[in-house]
Amino acid sequence: MTPATAARGLDTSQAALAEAPLPPAAPEDLRPALLASTAARIADRAETMGLTQWFWGEGVVLQGMLRLAEATGTPARPFVAAFVDRHLREGIELDHINHLAPGAACADLYGMTQQQHYADGCRRLLHWLRHAPEVTRAPGGALEHWPGGVWADTVYMAGTFLIHCGLHTDRPELVTEAGEQILAHAGVLQHPGTGLYAHGSHEGRTIWCFWGRANAWSALAAVEYLEAAPRAGTDPEITDRVRALLRRQLLALADHQPAHGVWDVLVDGQPENRGILETSGTAGIAAAMFRAAALGIEPERLRAAAWRALAGLHPYVAEDGTLTRTSAGTVLQLVPFGYSVIRNDIIQPWGQGLALHAYAAALTDRARHRP
Fold it and tell me: Are 213 and 60 in contact (CB under 8 A)?
């Protein structure tokens, strides 16, 4: 650490030890067959990693598997229904907003099958969201991740449940509610100058650490809403506002993207974390960029950034399908240095799930833009 950085209170010791990025894949090699086979390996590994809880990481995996099935035009993996059925049968313990995340898959299964137990599961989750004392809100209406804290994670974990439940149970007001949550979270977490998202707030004060996975959660929630809005007939003003904030965020992320494609764990080049790559945030951002481009949001710029991200991400998928360099579950950090630790020794469900989102979105993009 130089005297100049020490004087500013920065600890760049971990950044100095950052590994060099792996060489990205050649874009011309990322053909549909390779994308599909890689995604299948990622999904296979997710199935065998021992997912047992009804919780947020599991919810991301389930949604990723359903996205992949949609992109490939194949039936959903039996794992999805088996997982949801087992938990609905044995009973779900709900005590945190993250427990809503698998509910999006439950709603999707109801949409596919019209089986009553899936609708009953959605109703139970919605009742908990409405009435549980654990569910608190910030003054502006944003659902809190913990009392006194608004986190970007929540707008995806709760928001996708609301969106999918609204679509499949004929409750368009739930889709509108998800849009309102996106706007309320943006009011707390989107930086007015940069357009990037902070991870969260603490006791009413936003901590301006622009964590990659936080930006992925926010962007994915926004594209989920924008894709659902025409079907749900939501308020055009909400839709326009969500679209504008998503455009601003994704263009800011494109501006900060390294040439090799994979963003640092904090996406803005913050000195304490510079060069410390994190793959799950990159996967989620890539998926959001592909999907936003399909919605007509800066398509050329965002498609180019998304393919650059996927090319950089691809070498980090191990032979057994594990997405490496995925950070562990990360609580809100009050200083940037707290985000510098990457658990590269443990497979993480959100890494597998967000990778599935990315490869599914890439396959869909290839299908939309065949030569």
Answer: no
